[in-house]
Design brief:
CATH topology: Rossmann fold
Strand order of the largest sheet: 2-7-1-8-9-10
Largest sheet: 6 strands, parallel
Number of helices: 9
Strand content: 15-25%
CATH class: Alpha Beta
Radius of gyration: 17 Å
CATH architecture: 3-Layer(aba) Sandwich
Shape: globular
Helix content: 25-40%
């Protein structure tokens, strides 16, 4: 089988990387060859003269596939700012076709690919395109990570509506608790009948949400994504 999902979120800093890693491990546990991508990353650092992103490195390590780093993270930028602004600062243009090319190379080495977006759904990647254009070019379904905090109901409903109105398929959503004082159960109960797509997993609040620890605490997925 060949399957791919794009991981987006209601905002930045709401657990997309942790969910990406957890999904990679989930499918690996079922015996699939799994690759991960973080096509665009900002806030990167130099290693032996090349820009590297910590999350992308962990994604590559977790997948266990021996593929070039550049296939996982084609665009890496040093400033921790919006990707289109980072690209302008670097004097380059983020090209959807270049990301699709690396994706197709990964397809030759994996049964399943999990692709992590950057920021939220409508983040610009160049002067004319957003992440939406990348998902449309890849023609893949989307999984929405909802960061459970004040305002999440509105953010989740608006994001889900936009994903679908953009012509993309919303395969499911993940409820990720990021505020230990927030009423997560009430928000989940409100969102479940309104999002009209499967709740794939509910992540408990983690004191130190380090990506690998996040993956290790991943609960069972409630819906068979491969079915």
């Amino acid at each position: 089988m060949k399957s791919t999902w794009f991981i987006t979120g209601t905002d930045t800093g709401i657990g997309k990387t942790g969910c990406t890693l957890a999904l990679i491990q989930y499918f690996k546990n079922q015996g699939f060859r799994v690759a991960g991508m973080k096509p665009i990353a900002t806030g990167c650092y130099y290693q032996q003269g090349n820009l590297r992103n910590r999350d992308a490195e962990v994604i590559l390590t977790t997948s266990g596939l021996e593929v070039p780093y550049e296939w996982v993270n084609p665009y890496a930028f040093e400033p921790p700012i919006a990707p289109h602004l980072a690209a302008i600062h670097a004097g380059i243009t983020i090209e959807v076709a270049a990301i699709v090319d690396k994706y197709q190379q990964l397809c030759n080495h994996a049964d399943i690919i999990i692709i992590e977006g950057i920021g939220g759904w409508r983040v610009p990647i160049n002067t004319k395109q957003t992440l939406t254009d990348l998902v449309l070019a890849l023609n893949i379904p989307v999984i929405l990570v909802v960061g459970l905090r004040l305002g999440c109901i509105n953010h989740a409903l608006l994001t889900a509506e936009t994903i679908q109105s953009d012509g993309c398929t919303l395969a499911g959503w993940i409820a990720n608790s990021i505020d230990h004082q927030f009423d997560t159960l009430g928000s989940i109960a409100t969102l479940k009948p309104r999002l009209m797509t499967p709740l794939l997993a509910q992540i408990p609040y983690l004191i130190d949400p380090e990506p690998l620890q996040f993956a290790q605490t991943w609960p069972a997925i409630t819906t068979d994504l491969t079915g």
